[in-house]
Amino acid sequence: MTEAGFGSPLIIYGGISMIFDYQLIKTKQKLTMREPTVRECDGILSPVTTDKLIEAATDFLSKNLENITVRDKISGNDILALRIRLSTWLRQLKENPAYKTPPVQSTAQTEIPYQCTTTHIKAVADYTGMSFSQVWELPITEYWILYRDAVIWYYSRTEEGIDKLNHAKVISATEPDREKLSSCPAIIRRRNNGE
Question: DSSP of 118-187, one letter per residue?
């Protein structure tokens, strides 16, 4: 596979841009891709069928190619490269703390025999009062912020939820809490013993 589709994202003010470069493999046409919506990300990265993937990819690419239909201009390799490029770009964007959802762990004892695939959309719809259709059409970064806030709001309503949020903060910490460590009895004993 060629390097098509793997241009680096444009960097703005120390962060990742809301657009990224992409080049079609089949036609060598260079594109500057805009930020995708929730629906577009879901269709390209988590398609139900191959036909849905092709439809989502061609729709997304068409929106970035003003008034040009791309269905006959893209190949399977173009779609694969788009999926890889888009997921890489989204992963880089998701490193921003404003987009990260607290890693709250469920303590549910009952296993549900079916998997609900739109719970994340419902959470944002309930939190914001938006309809499902409105949530699907949000730019992905706006959705991430609202989803993060919806999760925090949901868990902050109860004592048990607040405990889960505190636990999530502890397990996602990358730096030690030096203030808490300095008040630890074992460390105080070591300091007093001259260690």
Answer: -HHHHHHHHHH---HHHHHTSBHHHHHHHHHHHHHHHHTTSHHHHHHHHHHHHHH--S--HHHHHT-HHH
